[in-house]
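Researcher: Quick sanity check before group meeting.
Model: Go ahead. Protein one:
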Amino acid sequence: MAHPNASLPMTGSSLTEFGLVDLDKVDPTINLDIRYATADNFLGQVLYPVARALLHPTVAQQLKQVQMDLLSQGLSLRVYDAYRPLSVQRKMWEFLPDDRYIADPQQGSRHNRACAVDVTLLDSGTGFALDMGTAFDDFSEHSHTHYPGIPPLARANRLFLQSIMQKYGFTGLATEWWHFDAQNWQSYPILDIPLDSN
């Protein structure tokens, strides 16, 4: 059932009042590389005061299932982004108002609902990231999930990432190989609460 205010930004004093959980507490084996807590991102500036991956509990549990499956195959997840406050979404849109890559803050992003993750795959033995053909946040046609002009190994890695995420209920985004939405994201409210709130 949809939240009664699912289309309106929700503010509050804490993230826990909306039930969000830290992914590293749900599964500490998942590697976090929260790019927007650093200047290593497409804006070249720090957007998050802390490096946290927050999600709704059901979404975090789905991601844990993905990770368990990957670990059995010698692989691991790396998470670049999860919950994103709407205020950050507005900054991103001001910098790059292109809805192929950045959701219009008037509608909100699935990230603003704590129902989307940006991920890649690592070799769990070496910790090295698998070749995906482009870097994270490469906003060009080369980052489109089924772009044909990348090396065969990178294409196979993208398709594998898509398949294992879909296996556990996530849906990919055609223009970003790294982005995945959880099921029923529409039922959760858009949030605009800072990441350093409790």
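Researcher: Fine. The other one?
Model: Protein two, sequence then structure:
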Amino acid sequence: MEEHIYSELQVGESAYFEKTITETDVYMYAGITGDLNWLHVNKVRAENSRFKQRIAHGMLLIGLVSNVIGNQLPGSGTVYVEQNMKFVRPCYINDTVKAYVEVLEILPKGRVKLATRCYNQNDEILIDGEAIVMPPRERAN
């Protein structure tokens, strides 16, 4: 786990995490959250949808972004303040997702604006967003 304090961050820094979204991931997320929307968990019904197959929960992908923010950039000790996002394309089961975070702006009062995006294995954007976070101001002992 990395830890970057507020004063160390620079515009343009970036980090990412990649994961293949499995059927198990989708079912576990559905069980944890209670989001049992048939688009995610009913193969037969989803085959008749506009997507022609099941799709992963969009918020599952945002969890991958949270992983990058909390473990890499800014890293451990960072607190989410705000997240805006646009769901551009669906994520299908067995897609490999790259959750990407980039420092866009160092804000006053210890806050940082980040680009938060998810891409699939074809480098197509799935989610486009921005976050405001508060990284630690000093290292914890």
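Researcher: One line on it for the slide.
Model: The first strand starts at residue 14 and ends at 20.
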